[in-house]
Amino acid sequence: MQISENGFIFSDQKELLQVNSIHRYLSEESYWAKNIPLEVVQKSIEHSLCFGIYKDQEQVGFSRWVTDSATFAYLCDVYVEERFRGLGLSKKLMSFMIFHPDLQGLRRYQLATLDAHGLYSQFGFKPLENPDRQMAIVIENAYLQQE
């Protein structure tokens, strides 16, 4: 799938992804994946439903769903390059992704965010009703330990 709007291309075609750009953003600019190795980014892309935003052949945004395409999808690694923020690209990306054919009929869509609650609530996301039912193993500074 691919759509164009205002000179931007939104696509789920993995062959368009610019892995080095994605890696640079995640490892250097994101708060959630600092120092992530390139090999980990490559493997995460390989095993996810990925989306990119492009302007003049440059990747300016990215996101991916970890999903079984039947019951569950977890949204992660969502970003828009800082110089392209404020143009509604995140909102357009969410609209493009949430209606993707591989994500229809699931019983749970989930994500974690530090500061984008306003964006995601527009698409039906809300705080967990029973957070005490959720559990996790969190490895702090996981990418620093791999070096």
In DSSP terms (H or I, runs of 4 or more residues), the helix count works out at 5
Number of strands: 6
Q: What is the level-2 CATH architecture name?
A: 3-Layer(aba) Sandwich
User: What is the name of the CATH superfamily?
Assistant: Gcn5-related N-acetyltransferase (GNAT)
- Helicity range: 25-40%
The main sheet orders its strands as 1-2-3-4-5-6
Question: What does the average pLDDT come to?
Answer: 93
- What order do the SSEs take from the amino end to the carboxyl end, as H and E? EEHHEEEHEHH
Terminal Cα separation, in Å? 37 Å
Give the overall silhouette.
Answer: globular
Structural class label: alpha+beta
How large a portion of the residues is in β-strands, by DSSP E? 25-35%
Number of domains: 1
What's the gyration radius in Å? 15 Å
Q: Please, what is the oligomeric state?
A: single chain
CATH topology: Aminopeptidase
Please give the largest β-sheet.
6 strands, mixed
CATH top-level class: Alpha Beta
Residue runs with pLDDT of under 50 for 5 or more positions: none
